[in-house]
Automatic annotation (TrEMBL):
<dbReference type="InterPro" id="IPR002577">
    <property type="entry name" value="HTH_HxlR"/>
</dbReference>
<dbReference type="InterPro" id="IPR036390">
    <property type="entry name" value="WH_DNA-bd_sf"/>
</dbReference>
<protein>
    <submittedName>
        <fullName>DNA-binding HxlR family transcriptional regulator</fullName>
    </submittedName>
</protein>
<dbReference type="GO" id="GO:0003677">
    <property type="term" value="F:DNA binding"/>
</dbReference>
<feature type="domain" description="HTH hxlR-type">
    <location>
        <begin position="12"/>
        <end position="110"/>
    </location>
</feature>
<dbReference type="InterPro" id="IPR011991">
    <property type="entry name" value="ArsR-like_HTH"/>
</dbReference>
<keyword id="KW-0805">Transcription regulation</keyword>
<dbReference type="InterPro" id="IPR001845">
    <property type="entry name" value="HTH_ArsR_DNA-bd_dom"/>
</dbReference>
<dbReference type="InterPro" id="IPR036388">
    <property type="entry name" value="WH-like_DNA-bd_sf"/>
</dbReference>
<keyword id="KW-0804">Transcription</keyword>
<dbReference type="Pfam" id="PF01638">
    <property type="entry name" value="HxlR"/>
</dbReference>
<keyword id="KW-0238">DNA-binding</keyword>
<dbReference type="GO" id="GO:0003700">
    <property type="term" value="F:DNA-binding transcription factor activity"/>
</dbReference>
Length: 162
């Protein structure tokens, strides 16, 4: 899913990464899928994205190996929801670093509040993206909860494939 050019064969790993990850919708979709929002309608409504744009992004993300689908039954019909692959779960440090950077370097809108990232293994909030600042353990999606006071919500992240 190139942003400007096809960098997929470039020697620079940053350019190759941006060839896949350079679309902002992609990281927001990965964030939501890691939070367990995997049905098409949920993603569309949560992100405020058009169906056409979402369909194109989901197709490209499956082709890039970031998403898989799993079947579920609803109203007697078998449907599919999107789940993160290991490649998408490996984006957790990047997503958490973006959140930390945003907390530090962007203005919090009126009525907003600090988003906490709790490492469930030790129960403490971490201020680092890859390893827990409290206990030093590596951070994995299935061990993380994002606390979003502005939504009065806590989102436990999901492991790849779940």
């Amino acid at each position: 899913m190139p942003l400007r050019s096809d960098w997929s064969t470039d020697f620079c790993p940053v350019r190759r990464s941006l060839d896949v990850l350079g679309d902002p919708w992609l990281l927001l979709i990965v964030r939501d899928v890691l939070h367990g929002t995997g049905r098409f309608e949920q993603l569309r409504d949560n992100l405020g994205i058009s169906e056409a744009v979402l369909s194109r992004r989901l197709k490209a993300m499956r082709e890039a190996g970031l998403l898989d689908t799993v079947d579920y039954v609803r109203d007697g019909r078998t449907r599919q929801r999107y789940v993160a692959t290991e490649a998408a779960a490996d984006l957790l440090p990047l997503l958490q670093q973006l959140a930390l950077w945003g907390e530090k370097h962007t203005r919090l809108p009126a009525g907003g509040a600090h988003m906490g990232m709790r490492h469930e293994t030790c129960g403490q909030e971490t201020t680092q993206a890859e390893t827990c600042s409290a206990c030093g353990e590596p951070l994995r999606p299935e061990d993380m909860t994002w606390v979003k006071p502005w939504r009065d919500a806590e989102h436990r992240l999901r492991a790849a494939g779940s």
